[in-house]
Structures are given as C-alpha cells and as structure tokens.
Amino acid sequence: GDPGTDTLRTPIVAVLGHVDHGKTSLLDKVRGSAVIEGEAGAITQHIGATAVPLDVISDIAGSLVDPTDFDLPGLLFIDTPGHHSFTTLRSRGGALADIAILVVDVNDGFQPQTIEALDILKRTQTPFVVAANKVDTLPGWNPVEDAPIQQSMETQSDRVQQQLNQELYEIVGELSDHGFSADMYWQVRNFQQNVGVVPVSAMTGEGVPDLLTVMMGLAQRYMKEEMQVDVGGPGVGTVLEVKEEKGFGTTVDIVLYDGTIRADDVIVVGGENNPIVTEVRALLQPRPLAEIRTESRFEQVDEVMAAAGIKVAAPDLDEAMSGAPIRVVRDRPVEEVEREVRSE
Ligand code: GTP
Ligand code: MG
C-alpha cells in the first residue's frame, strides 16, 4: 500500500569514533550478534547499516523507556571505520546521520579520530551523545551484565567510582575544549544544547539500555519534525558498496535516506563516467538486526521506505561507485534526475 505522508521516517544514527574504541562491538551488543569476529584484523573498513526495530530497543532499554512514548519505527544505525585512512567513509557516515553516537574509550580518552569525528559532527550540525565505552576495563570493576549504568555504578567500590568519575570528567573537559558544553547524560535537560555522556560497556552491556533510551529520546524529541517527510516520494540514497551477489550479478548496497524505492522503479546511480540509468530487478532486504555488510540471507521485497539499508539488484551496475548517489525516477523526466545525480 501507499505509505502516505503520515508515516515517520526512521532516524539514522551514525556511530563514530577512534579506531578500536568499540563502535562495532556496541552495535554487536545491540544486535546480539558478533560482526567484528568476521572483520579482517577486526578493523572496520566499510560503512555498515543495521535496522533496529522499536520493540528490540524497548526490550533492551527495559524499565528505562515506555514504548508508548515513541511513534518512531526504530533506529537505523550506521557503523563507520575509525582507522585514520578512512576519512571519506567517516564523512559519508556523518553526512547521512540525523543523530550520532561518538564512541570514546573511557581509558584512552580523546584521540585523533575522536577529534576528526567531532569536527564532522560540528560541520554537519548533527546532535550527538558520547558513549564512554569500556567501563568494564577500569581496574576493580564489578560487572553487572546489561544493567542501567547508574545501577551498576552504585555497586562499584568508592575507588572505582572515583576513577570512573575522573575519566568521565576528562572527557567532559575535552568536549569543552572543543566548544561543546557536556555533562553526564542524567544531568542533561536539553540534548541539543548540551552533550550527554553515557558510560557504557559493549562487553558487559552495562549502560546500553541508557544509550538506546537517550538516542530514542533524542530522535523523538528533536528529530520528529524532520522525520515527518513524504516517505512515499521517490527514493534517495547513497551507495555503500558495489558487490557481486549470486544469481543477481552486480548489486549495490545502499542507505535509503528519503522516500521509497519499489521493485519496478527506474533508478539513476552515480557511475565512474556517467550516471547509470537502469531498472530495479530486485530489492533485497536484510533481516531485522542484520548488518547489511555481512548479511547472507536477504528477503526479496516489493517496496522499502526510508531510512533503510537495502541491496538493489539491477542491470548495468558494474560502473557504480561506493559513495555515489542513487535516485528513483518515478514520474519525473529521467534527464532531470540524471542532472541531480551528476551535481551531487
Ligand atoms: P574500528 O571499526 O576499527 O574503528 O574499531 P571499533 O571502534 O569498531 O572497535 P571494535 O568494536 O572492533 O573493538 C575493538 C576491540 O575492543 C575489540 O577487541 C573489542 O572486543 C574490544 N572492546 C570493545 N568494546 C569493549 C568494552 O566495552 N569492553 C572491553 N573489555 N573490550 C571492548
Ligand atoms: Mg568497527
């Protein structure tokens, strides 16, 4: 059916931060899967996308959220590489984001790509929170699996609490040095004016309920108007990767960030030389909670609404490029859409 204009778009959450600070691990914890185990040298080298439905967020967040407070369909998480050589991919992730999580290793503090990520968020004016990750590695930490962070902090010894607070206030200080007023998330009233810091562990799950609650709240409170777009309109997206898929030939993994794409749409994709005009042969949707980058089982669907990670099979995609725009033509002159794609 036609999704119409009263359907809210899924917000896109970019996960940014220095190499090894735990971006993929945090998403693994939310997915309940282990994507990093499949990564060469455990270094992320591509942008990923994972759709997390509202009911999963509510399950993880537990008592911290009331799901009836939310009418957004969930969150689409974009994983980015932290290694210094992937600046372009970080910028692309930042450009896609409605909101973001800046992951900082609580022991390691701010590092070069933390600052680079911060600059991207500043430039794109993306509201974000800081996940102060790896709290479980503080000496003497007593893990409370999957607990809300304040609950877990109360059970720590005075010495551990002091150590944690010291590390957290160093992060707050670094943020302030870069022009952001920040505080522990439970002290923050307005998440657009102040950056909330959420202590977490991707390993033990502590603080993950808090992180999801804050992201959902941030999206619901400040992004809702921007999410009230015409998701029934012609789809617009970005190519993440160009890949061979058995039985489908060359396909593109995309993040659809606006509108709708249908299985019979004519599309224009940015190519090495000229925009490629082609017709969708199949839309292949990853399972809920699956990372599109590593997914092997896709469901063929007739229609996908933003925001979503989706694999598009179509003829003539050999010259498509990662990072290129993709646009659905629908009822417009194809030349007009080609011009749009060329100018992006
Ligand atoms: P890049 O994608 O390469 O930028 O790294 P990343 O930020 O995705 O880091 P990743 O999730 O791959 O984690 C790096 C290492 O830190 C892995 O060995 C993880 O197991 C470990 N790690 C991540 N989060 C935690 C945590 O909360 N606690 C502990 N103890 N280890 C963690
Ligand atoms: Mg990673």
Automatic annotation (TrEMBL):
Keywords linked to the UniProt accession? GTP-binding, Initiation factor, Nucleotide-binding, Protein biosynthesis
Q: Which GO terms describe its molecular function?
A: GTP binding; GTPase activity; translation initiation factor activity
User: Could you say which residues bind GTP here?
Assistant: 17-24, 79-83, 133-136
Residue ranges annotated as coiled coil are: none
Residues covered by the Tr-type G domain: 8-223
State its role: Function in general translation initiation by promoting the binding of the formylmethionine-tRNA to ribosomes. Seems to function along with eIF-2.
The UniProt family comment states: Belongs to the TRAFAC class translation factor GTPase superfamily. Classic translation factor GTPase family. IF-2 subfamily.
| Name of the protein in its database record | Probable translation initiation factor IF-2
Q: Which gene encodes it?
A: infB
- Whole-protein coverage range: 8 to 351 of 602
